[in-house]
Amino acid sequence: MGFSLITKALSAGEARRTLAVSEFDLIVISGPLPDEPGDRLAVSVSENLRGEVIFIVPESDFTQAAEKLAQFGVITVSKPLSRSMFWNAVTMAAASRARFNMMRRENEKLQQKIEDIKIIDRAKCILIDRMHMSEPEAHKYIEKQAMDLRTTRRDVANGIIRSMQS
Amino acid sequence: MTKAEEIIRFVTDQESDVKFIRLAFTDADGVVKNVSIPPKRFEAAVTDGIRVSAQALADCPPETSELFLYPDCDTLATLPWRPSHGRVLRMFASLREENGAVSEYDTRAILAESEEAFGAAGLVASVAAEVEFRLFKTDSEGRATDIPFDFGTYLDVYPDDLGENVRRDICLYLQTMGIETEASYHGEKAGQNSVRLHPAAPLALADNIQTFKTAVGAVAGQNGLVADFSGSDNALYLSLDVTSADMLEEVTSARYEESPAGNIYTLLSKLLDSLSSRYGRE
After folding, report:
1. Helix (H, G, I), strand (E, B) or coil at B196
2. Among B83, B142, B166, whose Cβ lies nearest the Cβ of A20?
3. What is the pLDDT of residue A128?
């Protein structure tokens, strides 16, 4: 596990400007920052799914910060901080990111399926209206076309929709 | 149930998760102002208004000490850039005197009146706007500097233009609030951006511009920037299309260049009044 392209920012403002332009997997905030304690930045980044956040706070602020920020997915760590503790936090953040990416891929697949269903339904409606098929007939028709033409039901559906527009 | 009663019910319901309601209005100089109230105060706001200091607001004569904000229940909107846990709603508010009469400092009411008179003169106006603003960096203490966010010029792309994500966020937030944008791009000056708002009736468009300015301020802050609308660097372009009240006859079209920093309600009100006297029929 390695991180490349490490960028540094000296204030929350500078961090926000950097995030406005680039994408990151991990953001490590050492609070307090000169322009804010750092918790707002931590929440903002985490809530908007802009990357994993490790928020390092002075020991005196730790309990309160950790409790408040956990609900936003922020990993809070107290300083002074040993090297091994820091790497533990980074490993946890990386694992969290990996899980997030898996869920995002699943979500994208589901979105695709929803789109497929919408398009296929539209094509079915056309077959029902214009070709006077029943719903099961339309369903079978699209399925058979997809098999015969060795393509997806979505492609068949798109073809039906396109041919009706010409 | 009246609209007010519906809203009272909605905001006081736990399920709605409303944390604050912002009563927004515009001062004489065109600056967006607001007062936030908790949901349980909303009913009182509707019946009695929320007190504000008149002296602090405009060039009020010394006799007027207090004005009251009354929410306009037709302008309810969620502010999409506020936290997801705990909504903030916004309503435009009218400024009224203690006796309930609309204050002469309520420029929004003045525009509403002008629009009504415009209609009575047999005319209808559709207004589109293009608003320019500049983005500047903040310093390490979070204060605005005079360093522009980028050094791009007209219609530039990354890396000369760094504001693409900022413009995108602004337009998406506005879209969520029902305000359509037609185009956005980098302006001529360093750090300058331009957004075109879809045409609307004068009062609605003026409201949209004020909402737009608020959204720009919020998105700028989220990105470590400060937005500046001052007229020395930026322009507000208004396109007015005037038709007959039955929309069948085109009466006139006009384009105006103004400062984005002024009071848009006063501006549009004057434009409508002058067009009304020129083209209106009794």
Report:
1. strand
2. B166
3. 93
CATH superfamily of B3-105: Glutamine synthetase, N-terminal domain (3.10.20.70)
DSSP A74: P
Range of the domain at A157: 109-165
CATH architecture type of domain B115-279: 2-Layer Sandwich (3.30)
Tokens of B75: 């302008």
pLDDT digits (tens, 9 = 90+) for B26-54: 988 899 999 999 999 999 999 999 999 88
pLDDT above 90: percentage of residues in chain A: 85
Q: Do A16 and B83 touch (CB under 8 A)?
A: no
Domain total in chain A:
2
Residue B85 distance to chain A (closest CA, Å)? 10
A9-23, B46-60, B189-203, B262-276: segment of lowest average pLDDT: B46-60
Chain A: residues touching B (Cβ < 8 Å):
10-17, 19-21, 34-36, 43-44, 47, 71
What letter would DSSP give residue B102?
B
Nearest to B116 by CA among B216, B227, B226, B245: B245
